[in-house]
């Protein structure tokens, strides 16, 4: 069973819901609108959507949005917000595949959840879902050019309200993975979990997309449109479904 099918329960989800500010969400959606040149009423897939922050923001701007995620808790929370979004529970590779979406967004660093074979399956599913000429945004903070320069894996402690998170990350050089070990603490409640992010080079990500049926690939260091360079902490990739 995949690590991410077990990881995203209420306490980790609540921490990330608090950590992601409205300003961060708005900047991501501004970027997607601008770089994908979304038309009014465009049909957009958000996968995986987590607790729905990007889906809800996109719907609020008039787009027809489907949000899909494997976490029942996250989808339940998203539905409770009563947004005009079609919510679906499922694996990120289990996509509609009808070619009827004008764009897809994969925000929040989840592109690295899958190994090589799984990533190819995911990209192929996106290609079947997005119409020819439609756009794609991939968000990735585990690019080799981002994480390896100066990597230390130093312990971190993060706080959001009454939730404290202790984190330690190790790099697996055999399988090119980051293993992030977390302890989520809220009062007497303690939840330990490990997240796995496969590390790919910027070039490998481009190859995944090209081989899967996408072109016009562009790379950015953030939603402000700055160029991606060595040691940029974040990689945003845009692409177009080949006609």
TrEMBL record:
Keyword Isomerase belongs to the record: no
Pfam families: Methyltransf_25
Keyword annotations from UniProtKB, A to Z: Methyltransferase, S-adenosyl-L-methionine, Transferase
InterPro entries xref list: Methyltransf_25, SAM-dependent_MTases_sf
Methyltransferase domain boundaries: 44-134
Record field: transmembrane: none
Keyword Membrane: no
GO biological process, one term: methylation
GO molecular function: methyltransferase activity
PANTHER family per the UniProt record, alphabetical: METHYLTRANSFERASE (PTHR43464), UBIQUINONE BIOSYNTHESIS O-METHYLTRANSFERASE, MITOCHONDRIAL (PTHR43464:SF19)
Name assigned to this protein: Methyltransferase domain-containing protein
Originating organism: Dactylosporangium matsuzakiense
